[in-house]
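Chain X:
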Amino acid sequence: MKVAVVTAPGEVELRDEPTPDVAPDEVLVEVGACGLCTMERRLFSGEKQIYPVAPGHEVAGRVVAAGSAVAGLSGSPQVGDQVTVDLLTRCGTCRQCRRGRSALCRVPQGGALTDGTISMGAGLAELVRVKAAAAWPVGDASSDHASMGEPLACVAHSVRLSGFRAGDRVAVIGGGYMGRLHQALTRHLGAAEVGVIDVSADRLTDATEAGASWTATPDAAASRVDAADITFVTAGAPGALELAVSLTDDGGTVVLYGAFPKDLTAPVSPDGIHHHELSIVGVYSQEPEDWRTAAGLLTSGALAPDLDRLVTARFGLDAVGDAMALAAGSPVYRVLVGG
């Protein structure tokens, strides 16, 4: 089978890899689509220099083989099923896993191809092999939509840890792909209103067309004091935390979803947090409970119009270099590869 390997900044090649055999508790998935996220963009641009590496972790496709222990097992994905795939490994043994916080599993992620090449998902390929428990059937959802299962699970995790309830007012700082998924999910779950903040006029227009209650630049949003019960920061830029605290009303929650520069600090008043009962919550990755939510949403088609809006472009695996160049060099929502 073919698998894409990034060998240097701006360079990617397709390598031959043996078709994997499935263990009794595994399934083999023919990849229909794999999304390019920030990690792939950073590897291709040279911002993250780990070479050679086989990336790709936002994967969906059809099951083409099932191991003997799961074939015919009720609830397990079967041959022919469309699935979205969880490629995060969870040891189940470390303290975080035992506390039910497996998004923070202490066991290092990743693996290797047969030639020793580092694998960070290796989903930019013709096939992927996973535990059956990590493949979530999604009914008639398209591969394009199903490939959004992993980011949608991450957003379900974010919304779950935020304590969101129907009727809450929501603000989203960052109108990129993950911000738009927060917008879509909270609207679906009954937010009273969802505002989106971004520096890009184009993204604010897109958010409005997707149903945002209001949009604003960061400067304009500074006047919207106490405008939200929950504020999701999906773009970890300087000033974002301070803006989020200003936007969030008494008893509300600020969720730090997007990654921030590691050396960035921010002045936040502890007394203000105390007197106004503000919560500041960090969220990272996803857990099996969130995959169940994401798979259910994909199966129902409830977010289908929102997901359609987020497909910027689609490429075949043989054009993975062009796909990565577009994702790394242009403002995009999701560029998909596969099929």
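Chain Y:
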Amino acid sequence: MLLLCGCAGQTAPVLTVEQDNRQPTHTETQKATNTVTPHAAGNTATEIKILPTRIDTNPGDMDKITGTETVRLELTEIPGPDNKPARSLSSNAWKGLPVIPHVSDNVKTIYKRGLELGRNPDVYSKIGDCGSTPTWFLGDFDRGPKYYDLGEYQYLNEVISEFAGSHERTSLAARAGFNAPSLFVPLWSDIKLCDPNEGPLECEYRVNNPIIAFIMLGANDIWHPDEFEPSMRKIIEYSIDNGVIPILSTKADNQEGDGSINFTIANLALEYDIPLVNFWRAVQDIPNKGLQEDGVHMTWGNNDFNDPDSMNTAWTIRNLTALQTLDAVWRKAIETP
């Protein structure tokens, strides 16, 4: 069986203090307004207006962006005790969602619950396959400025400092080959740090005690697609119930052929009203859409947001968009009325 994790078959370059080759981020900072008018029940439709993608050094400069595109949403009803209507994207509408999400007040609700449960407000976790390990994802931002250049994104220094220690930490719920169901299987847990009946997700949340979690899954879920959505729901609900703000992300590849995994991820983010990094959209305008020749592994670049060559690689873009989203989520969470 071939494991399609984002770094399988790929070797990270050896780094020196002077030269750093690691992860990705994004050339585009998308400012978006997600305005949804919920309906009472039944299968109805509404619209959200998406502001176009652009590079922006100031995350608050909404007035500089002109033009909108419309994405249609369909609302269907979810069986449940509250009979609450679920919001669902239609067709390929997920492709037009912004790269950097408009963060709703629901984040503040989860954050408050997390504080009540004793969560550490200065810690986040990474949940996923080998692409969620610090060699690839965000680790450089604990290693000091010799390993990255924020360029015009200097405002990210604050969030980097706020979550110092989380960037380079290796998660107990991030391992090569992980798919969504594996997060609840004790067999895959660290036997030294986890309790006998703890799955990797539960163990990570107990040991690291995060207030936020990046959840980046899907590359290894093409083998059992029927298990992906229910497992993702379980991950999301477990996170929210335990006061951890889940940040979802679409993936760059389309190994399943129909974009259904990204469609599911985007729909779940919308339904649960949680942040989504539309990473797929972030890489559409860079060479080969950020993918190597195999169509699975992402292109590599330094975390130098001031270097045009690095900004044309998927791993550089992934790190930038993640930091931008972390910044947006954190600021919304601590926002005062």
